[in-house]
């Protein structure tokens, strides 16, 4: 079964200049075209063997042949490695095109892998996530999706729906032999698989945190040491620190990796009553940051102790993590669960331990993207429609319609029932060469 008649080419390593550039040529004429780029290639290449060759550009390169069924795309493929200069890239690509190849569109290799059945759609999408991953945690989740983590769960839901559909149809066609449709057993079956759906829906928001970074807003009264804490955590003097209350006027954010996880620290303007217009605008932004944060650290000053204002903020920002700063100046009997000194680097490890725990709690088990999330929501509506239908014992033809709708939605996630437009949109967001 040969699906594609044209052969496509693109570099699959980043843009040069680089030590080496790799090119992928894939399609029915991959070897014919790839071989024209080398001077003394074999006519019958051994699969997956590296041939060191003098290329037509005069440089030494390496050619590898993958037969149909054994390559990334599933089609016959050649990988060519050469020097990564812009000039060599230009010459080799031009030669490949003159010899019959066409430039691959973004994501076209992975799209072919999908259309050839090498990958299911969520696995193909995970390829782009693995490339985008900018933290070890993100990478591990994307890798799990690539290995089929979401695929398995969606197919479990789908199996359940197919099973129910089979039962409905059997009871309609052979009601005399197998009796009437068992509404209670069907409701039971739905209850068994519903937790899968609920976990996936909860993971959608958490997946967003993995992509954008876990947002930590540092808030508190002026002069408690918020900017000093940001600087201490990112280990450089990024924010201005002075002993003047009201130093930070605007919010300032910095990305940071906390034990393999991506976080964004946000320093904010100290909260207080003021008539200063600029400061008021800053305070307004602080409130917005708190609303959008995954964790708010409410910092207070151990030298002055816990004030009425601190108490008010603690009531307002209920989930905030309360941290006392300037422990070096703390009164001997002051009690605080988390005491630090941002200026002297004291107590930071225990604070990071707590932050890490909060980040772990917000980590998804399965990476779910916006597209999956929207379809999962639609499927959740199907589930509740079905449940209602079962309680009022609707006739079986209506049940089949609902079940078929649900199966169709799940198929859009896995790709079986995804429209060509949907597929096109997904793959055009990939980078060239993938
Ligand atoms: N002794 C001591 N001083 C500290 C500590 N942390 C910060 N400071 C000092 O406290 C003052 C205020 O620090 P900042 O980090 O600017 O405080 P802030 O909360 O960002 O202040 P605003 O931006 O005005 O809201 C500075 O003089 C810091 O050097 C600490 O752990 N110990
Ligand atoms: Mg500040």
Overview of this structure, please?
There is one protein chain. The mean pLDDT is 93. This protein is α/β, with parallel strands linked by helices and 434 residues long. The protein has a six-stranded mixed sheet with strand order 3-4-5-2-1-6. Strands 8-9-7-10-11 form a five-stranded mixed sheet, with helices on both faces. It has helices at 30-35, 86-98, 108-115, 121-132, 136-146, 149-173, 175-178, 183-212, 226-234, 277-292, 308-316, 348-361, 370-391, 396-414, 420-427, and strands at 8-11, 18-26, 50-54, 60-66, 77-84, 102-103, 214-220, 252-258, 261-267, 295-301, 321-325. Helix 4 runs antiparallel to helix 5 (136-146), helix 6 runs antiparallel to helix 14 (396-414) and helix 13 (370-391) packs antiparallel against helix 14 (396-414). The longest helix is centred in the middle third of the chain and has 30 residues, at 183-212. It has three domains: 8-113, Probable tRNA modification gtpase trme, domain 1 (Gyrase A, domain 2, 2-Layer Sandwich); 126-209 and 367-427, tRNA modification GTPase MnmE domain 2 (Four Helix Bundle (Hemerythrin (Met), subunit A)), CATH 1.20.120; 215-361, 3-Layer(aba) Sandwich (Rossmann fold), CATH 3.40.50. Strand 1 and strand 2 form a beta hairpin. It has 15 helices and eleven strands. Magnesium ion (MG) is lined by residues 226-227, 239, 247-248, 267.
């Amino acid at each position: 079964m040969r699906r594609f008649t044209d052969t496509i080419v693109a570099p699959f390593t980043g843009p040069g200049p680089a030590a080496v550039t790799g090119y992928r040529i894939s399609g029915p004429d991959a070897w014919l075209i790839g071989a024209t780029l080398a001077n003394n290639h074999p006519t019958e290449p051994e699969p997956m063997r590296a041939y060191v060759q003098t290329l037509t550009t005069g440089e030494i390169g390496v050619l590898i042949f993958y037969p149909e069924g054994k390559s990334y795309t599933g089609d016959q493929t050649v990988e060519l490695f050469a020097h990564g200069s812009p000039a060599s890239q230009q010459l080799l690509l031009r030669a490949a095109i003159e010899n019959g190849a066409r430039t691959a569109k973004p994501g076209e290799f992975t799209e072919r892998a999908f259309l050839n059945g090498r990958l299911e759609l969520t696995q193909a999408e995970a390829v782009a996530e693995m490339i985008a991953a900018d933290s070890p945690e993100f990478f591990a989740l994307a890798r799990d999706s690539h290995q089929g983590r979401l695929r398995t769960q969606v197919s479990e839901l789908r199996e359940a729906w197919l099973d129910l559909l089979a039962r409905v149809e059997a009871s309609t066609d052979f009601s005399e032999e197998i009796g009437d449709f068992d509404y209670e057993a069907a409701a039971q079956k739905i209850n068994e698989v519903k937790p899968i759906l609920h976990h996936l829906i909860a993971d959608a928001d958490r997946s967003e945190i993995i992509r954008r970074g876990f947002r930590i807003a540092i808030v508190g009264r002026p002069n408690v040491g918020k900017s000093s804490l940001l600087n201490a955590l990112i280990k450089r003097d990024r924010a201005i620190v002075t002993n003047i209350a009201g130093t930070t006027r605007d919010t300032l954010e910095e990305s940071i990796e906390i034990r393999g996880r991506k976080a964004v620290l946000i320093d904010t303007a100290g909260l207080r009553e003021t008539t200063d217009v600029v400061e008021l605008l800053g305070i307004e932004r602080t409130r917005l940051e708190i609303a959008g944060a995954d964790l708010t650290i409410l910092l207070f000053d151990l030298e002055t102790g816990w004030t009425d204002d601190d108490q008010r903020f603690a009531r307002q920002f209920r989930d905030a993590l309360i941290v006392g700063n300037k422990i070096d100046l703390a009164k001997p009997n002051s009690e605080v669960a988390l005491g630090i000194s941002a200026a002297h680097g004291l107590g930071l490890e225990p604070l990071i331990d707590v932050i890490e725990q909060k980040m772990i709690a917000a980590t998804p088990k399965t990476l779910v993207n916006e597209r999956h999330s929207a379809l999962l929501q639609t499927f959740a509506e199907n589930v509740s429609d079905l449940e209602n239908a079962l309680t009022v014992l609707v006739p079986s033809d209506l049940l089949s319609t609902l079940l078929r709708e649900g199966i169709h939605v799940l198929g859009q996630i896995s790709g079986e029932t995804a429209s060509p437009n949907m597929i096109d949109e997904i793959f055009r967001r990939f980078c060239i060469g993938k």
